Amino acid sequence: GESVGLHLPTLSVQEGDNSIINCAYSNSASDYFIWYKQESGKGPQFIIDIRSNMDKRQGQRVTVLLNKTVKHLSLQIAATQPGDSAVYFCAETLRSGYSTLTFGKGTMLLVSP
Amino acid sequence: NAGVTQTPKFRVLKTGQSMTLLCAQDMNHEYMYWYRQDPGMGLRLIHYSVGEGTTAKGEVPDGYNVSRLKKQNFLLGLESAAPSQTSVYFCASSYTSTAKETQYFGPGTRLLVL
Questions:
Q1: Is A43's CB within 8 Å of B92's CB?
Q2: Alpha-carbon distance B63 to B84, whole Å?
Q3: CA-CA-CA-CA torsion for A36, B103, A61, A56, nearest 10 degrees?
Q4: CA distance B2 to B101
Q5: Which residue among A41, A86, B57, B60 has the highest number of C-beta atoms inside a 10 angstrom radius?
Q6: Residue B42 is nearest to which of A7, A45, A106, comparing CB atoms?
């Protein structure tokens, strides 16, 4: 979920488990959503995106679910690996015009062997 | 193809000093962005550019200026650094507007203002 103050919410899982990271977005008009992964000391990296006309989108080991009714996104990572340890951000935007991304505060995923 | 690069990687400034952060991309992207990232927070947009010679304000533009004289470069300037500007700065670029194309991020510049 979203962080409050200086502390990121943290999800700790064992290697091989499935992970679910949640995000509440703020703008009901947003129609395009992206998940980014940020490893320590690096810039964010695109994982997967979804448009508002979809409820679910699958990638390689990742699935994004979108619930527009409650303005909620989730990222599911199957068979989580130590290399998945990172901070995960959701971002929202409008598909029209010169819209820019609004990022959530992030969730830290820690995967132990 | 280096993607998005940022210079410098790390810098320490005293309050009141000025500096320029350089972002370069070799992907022929039209759009470029500057973000700052503070502990426990997501990225916040400072300024962005939708093409060479154009700039626009983002969410937190105060205390910063930008220039996009060449398509491949986007400069972020701090005229008089303040401790509140201690942060990690990320540059990003995209081929078209965010709506249609994901942004590609640089590795970041860590700035400490004393």
A1: yes
A2: 10
A3: 90
A4: 19
A5: A86
A6: A106
**Residues in B touching A99 (Cβ below 8 Å):** 97-99
**Residue matched to tokens 């370069």:** B24
- Per-residue pLDDT, B52: 94
Residue B8 backbone class (left: φ over 0; alpha: ψ -120 to 50; beta: rest): beta
**Contact between chains at A34 and B102 (C-beta distance less than 8 A):** yes
Mean pLDDT in each 10-residue stretch from start to end of chain B (114 residues)? 92 97 95 92 91 94 97 97 97 76 90 97
- Phi and psi at residue A83, to the nearest 5°: -70, -10
pLDDT at residue A52, rounded to an integer:
92
Cis peptide before B8, with omega less than 30 degrees from 0? yes
Q: How does pLDDT run across A60-93, given as a tens digit for each residue?
A: 999 999 999 999 999 999 999 999 999 999 999 8
**A48 inside 8 A of chain B by CB:** no
- A21-25, A98-102, B42-46: which range is least confident on average? A98-102
Q: Does B90 touch chain A (CB under 8 A)?
A: yes
Both tokens of A42, joined, read: 């690096």
